[in-house]
# Entry
Amino acid sequence: MNDRLTTLLHDQAARLDVHPPGPGQVRRAALHKRAVRRRSAAAALTVATVVIIALFAVVNPLVGARRTPVPVAPPAHSTRFAGLASAETPVSVPADGRLVLNISPESGATWNVYADGRVIWQRWSSPDAGDPLVIPPGADPSRTTYVQQRLTPHGVQLLVSRILATGQAVGLFGKGMSLGNQAFEADGIAAWYQVCNNGHLIHAQVVPPSYMDNPQLETPAQMRALAQITNLAKNPSSLLPASAWADRTIRPYVPSHYLLVFDRHAPDPAKLPSPAKEVLAQFQPLLHNADQTVTTDQARALIAALDGVGVKVVSNHASNLGFDVPAVGDGNRTILEFRPAVPSSHLTDSGQC
# Structure
């Protein structure tokens, strides 16, 4: 496995897993790419704004003479962060669970099914933006992250057996494997499929061929099978019998934990003003080059501290809230992201199910 595939695997694990699969020695190219795009978009908007103001001043040079700008006090740091539940909202329980199925196709959606019947899922607007497309009735769109339903034990068994049979018919889910697909080359995206087989979570991942040392290309039959699996995960309510459901109603899932991830360099709390410096310094695994899982209360406290000292927000979506913070090393910066976590096991074949 080469470095780019390792990076992609770590990014996939970080996005989906409350228990990261190991120290984050390899930083995420995808996260950096999104950060660069966001900065480029912001810079382009700034340039466009300056040009418009300059043109307006040329057309009407008396504007500045007629009116003296009135200073406006900057607003208090009370940004409404997407995906962060209010302190009064109870988190969803239980906070852990035995994962039996995880599907994350390249479209940016995620489905997680647990042995106790919970189906925790969401369809996101895009892998970059990460705004939820499924909002339960009465839910606050800016507070919605994942949603949940519940299968019966029989429903879980039926869903898993159908997906396992579909994959095994074309050589998938007997052992973990990565398959190359030329269509994924341009954007460096990946699709992830993981299902319980004989007590172990077995994965099939589709990646750009250049990410692999000896690429095994996805066959047409495997492409069709994975498309069928994706469709089954997208539409379980219509494709499973009513008897498979304990509660088909789509309800909000309120995370009990968030995953802290960062770009190429670990954040450096010493370069931040108080009290953000002291709050960030509490997260030692993060500062020692590893991703870290924190409770919602811990995430809320750190977000408030960063926001309170004016740290720049570079993304504000339900699936990713990012701050531009100083990093270890002279002049280094990094993007510190908060991502809502769902209960899961390690995203490797060693996971028990």
Remarks:
- The two ends are 25 Å apart (CA to CA).
- Residues 92-252 form a domain with the Mago nashi protein fold (CATH 3.30.1560).
- Residues 29-59 form the longest helix (31 residues).
- Residues 55 and 182 are 46 Å apart (CA to CA).
